[in-house]
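To fix ideas, we quote verbatim one protein's residues and fold tokens.
>
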Amino acid sequence: MKEMSATNISTLGGQQQQPQKHYGITSSISLAFPREIDHMYTQKLVEAMKPFGVFEDEDELNHRLAVLGKLNSIVKEWISEISEVKNLPPSAVASVGGKIFTFGSYRLGVHTKGADIDALCVAPRHVERTDFFLSFFEKLKQLEEIKDLRAVEDAFVPVIKFNFDGIEIDLLFARLALASIPDNLDLRGDSILRNLDIRCIRSLNGCRVTDEILYLVPNKENFRLTLRAIKLWAKRRGIYSNMLGFLGGVSWAMLVARTCQLYPNAVAATLVHKFFLVFSKWYGPKENDCSGGRAMF
């Protein structure tokens, strides 16, 4: 997927035409707008998915937001404490910052009832990874709301896992080459990766990929509803798991995002249909084709 671009301005009957925007590496297949019946089918799609618990109610959503807000405050407090221990001047301690970013299904807006939250703790350069797995781990241990706390420090992407007031959270860590972490920090730019160790880069990947997907789809709400439907279909058929050799969450999201780019004005019901139309005819390069000449779906 690639940032949307515009074709050259053309003329028709001596009149200048507005440039036509397209998304991704190719132009769209269709720019058709939805008909009334497409909206009706989309509403039926929503109703058909409701019994499977793919939508959270307002109370559950608000509870997640409250938990993440508390966790963000804890992180800021911990980074301030670490900064004081490391003898930073009071003026620096006051502005050192720190922030929790989310990624995965929660950040994409397609999480289901009871799903966990993938999160990333971003700290300034003077906070070490060992601080995260020692002092921050101990700080979490003191909190009554935290249950099932465990650290997996030697994983490919090191993580602290815990249950915070009923919400399962997987928390990664990344220290940036910055003196402070502002609340408006954008992780999408490649310059943020300079002078980072490989574990920090791996930890940042989830947020960066998720944000890039959301940035590159024409309509976020249509994308989210379509992805919910495709994820439900894949899980019901037992083909949603990269650990078992199938596609994982990010891979499904990328396929749906590409479908949205090809049909930028379509609503979810149409996009679900086009998803299978596109990828039933999508063949890999001949030299790398391990599918025996079959399409993806």
